[in-house]
């Protein structure tokens, strides 16, 4: 009897596994091209499935698939800044940014698809998904600052920094992922520390937040290193005071 070569057994994906596969394929395509230039046939080909199967999971067509893909990326990003309220603020932010930047690094296509704008397929719902990530990040950071009723200056400082983190992440992708992630992380934490210090000069609420945060900081931590680097700069500019 002639033996036949064995072939790998076909493994049927679960509903969630198949849905995740389609979303990953869609995110990758949406990052490479504007969403209106991506068809369901493209998504099916990228995922290695048939077009009817894509419709079975997303009967609302490309708009539903686009929104679902954005939401899947958004849900993961929203959790990046969730961090136990223990230890110095800069160390907590560093751990949160480690997760955030790891997502950017590992899902660069998905991250770009989440934040890219100017598409005709964009709707109030897709805009709300992206805004939801920013609002969730802001709430987590205000929790780290132990502030339940932030004033306009503190709230604006936090939201401006979140925008800076997004912009820096996209630029980092454009710059072939340079500098190294740990350097980018520390720089972003320093940016937030400096922004808080600048706002503290004219806002009593932010000043109180900074004083409380500095008590927890370690001399050899990010905040201490930033102060030591800034002292010579301030001393050299003393003639301006």
Key terms for this structure?
241 residues, mainly alpha, Tetracycline Repressor, domain 2, 70% helix, disordered N terminus
Protein described:
Helix content is 70%, strand content 0%. By secondary structure, the protein is mainly alpha-helical. The protein has a domain at 70-217: Tetracycline Repressor, domain 2 (Orthogonal Bundle). Helix 4 (62-78) packs across helix 6 (108-115), helix 5 crosses helix 6 and helix 8 packs antiparallel against helix 9 (181-200). It is elongated, with a radius of gyration of 23 Å. Mean pLDDT is 84; it is low at 1-10.
Secondary structure layout:
Layout: H1 15-32, H2 40-47, H3 51-57, H4 62-78, H5 89-106, H6 108-115, H7 124-144, H8 152-174, H9 181-200, H10 204-216, H11 222-236
Helix pairs in contact: 1-2, 1-4, 1-6, 2-3, 4-6, 4-7, 5-6, 5-9, 7-8, 8-9, 9-10
Structure at a glance:
Helix content is 70%, strand content 0%.
CATH class of the domain at 70-217: Mainly Alpha
The outline comes out as elongated
Summarize model confidence as the mean pLDDT.
84
The CATH architecture designation of the domain at 70-217 is: Orthogonal Bundle
Low-confidence spans: pLDDT under 50, at least 5 residues? 1-10
Tally the helices. Answer: 11
Q: Tell me the number of strands.
A: 0
The main pleated sheet reads as: none
Using the CA coordinates, give the radius of gyration.
23 Å
* Class by SSE composition: mainly alpha
Which fold name fills CATH's third level, the topology of the domain at 70-217?
A: Tetracycline Repressor, domain 2
The CA-CA distance between the termini, in Å, is 96 Å
Assigned CATH superfamily of the domain at 70-217: Tetracycline Repressor, domain 2
What is the helix fraction of residues, given as a range?
55-70%
Write the H/E string, N to C: HHHHHHHHHHH
Q: Report the portion of residues in β strands.
A: under 5%
